[in-house]
Structures
1.
Amino acid sequence: MPIYEYRCQACARVSSFFLKSINSELEPVCAHCQSKDMARRMSSFAMGKTVGSVHENFASGSEHRTPGYYSDPRNIGRNVESAFSKYGVEMPQTVRDNIDAARSGETPKGLDL
């Protein structure tokens, strides 16, 4: 009994569909805006994971806690970039500009430090 995920091309939200069998027909409709313009996506649940890959992913998140992590300007905005990528949303140019400015040593516009 598979569960399929689709991203709505109209509102960019994700809807999940539970089917009785792999052979069941599906015409996905967005649960949020009722659009039929849907794109199938790979859900993280559907991707196989090994014990090794779980440990690798856990370890890669722990470097944020090490002293000096944020001393490296390449790490500024990394979580923001990751979140936009994870949810398949295009990053606004103003956000990209602020991250690039911070990485080059400039204070982002609108911040009084």
2.
Amino acid sequence: MVTPGNVNNMLMAGALFAAAGPFRQLVADRGYDTNRVRELIAARGAVAVIPSTATRRPQIPHDKACYRSRNLIERMWGRLKDWRRLATRYDKLARNFLSTAAIAAIIIYWIN
């Protein structure tokens, strides 16, 4: 799902979870540490693997070993952002942006 750059990720969380299909755990960064997101994940019968923000009291524990797997996704986004066209979002149309992302992912996979 592609949204404009000025849309908060929390607004799309419900739609993203519905599109994801069934899952047992959801690994996300501190930016998703909101009660609403945690409630949406719990409603799906899954476990939220989200570290608490520094201001949350009390801190909610998370599975640190599982959270380390998020590193793979962060490295993938880092590689995709090497493509300036993706990092700066030159494309105005969502279909063009997604096409560029797909081409970049194919080339990165092919090179490795």
3.
Amino acid sequence: MVSERVFYAAISSDGFLSGPDGDMSWAEKYLASGEDYGYVQLVGSSAAILMGRATFDFEIESGVQGPRPLPTYVLTHIPELYGDIQDANIHFTGGDIKQVINLIALAHPGKLFVMGGANVVGQLLEANLIDTMRLFICPEELGQGIKAFTDDTALNNFALTDEKQYESGIIEEIYQRVTI
């Protein structure tokens, strides 16, 4: 049961997913442009979503409410923080990333949409569990915050296969894992 795992993220031109203290407000102006950057198509073609706790917390703080469009797995070591969340499509999980991915694939065969954050993508890259990366390079530098990748070798096992420029100034780069 092989399924594609797609990391989808907006990053600053200097490689940050978020600013200091996890601040994502810098990216909101791009979301307000009216362009969906392929998000609806990706959700429509995916079987489940994997995200980290910080990304999930950001969504809650930003007012994202309502039922999840897909089964959503939140990687966290402290699931008890979310005891009041009553959504059958949200699952809090943790542990070895390979086991987490296997459990998700068994329950929801098909494409896995990985929304972040840096810790999650780092674990997946280390375990060779990302097949495609869709990176949306925003035309601004943050200078500090949380880097998308912990080192400069993150893309070593990937080839740039497509690139697209949006009116907002964002450049989408699509990378595919290179099989050796």
4.
Amino acid sequence: MRILIVNGPNLNLLGKREPQIYGNQSFEEYVEYLKTSSTAEISYFQSNVEGELINALQASDHDGIILNAGGYTHTSVALRDCIAAIDLPVVEVHISNITSREEFRHTSLISPVSVGCVFGFGMDGYRLALSYFELNKR
């Protein structure tokens, strides 16, 4: 099974950005942990650019996608339409609980077109999303 993890804007700053919310570990360190603790083949892509995220989703030939769209979660109709258009299951992940934060973060445009959502479990949310794919192999 091949899984693509896609992280959106500012997630390249994990480990440095607001550690009280996002923790002290870089995502590169965490993805190495995921690769060694799973039987899935995991690829990783991060971009701060909306169009690059869309291109990565459209070009994916993986079995599933784990997506943390960052701030685009709440604003990008284009990203939402891309997820609806591709024939791959997408699990939406957020490190923080977006519904317990600022009001503008409460609405996800991505959730309605995702097969599932994991919010508020820190980086462990990616492992939980990965377990969905491991348990529901296509």
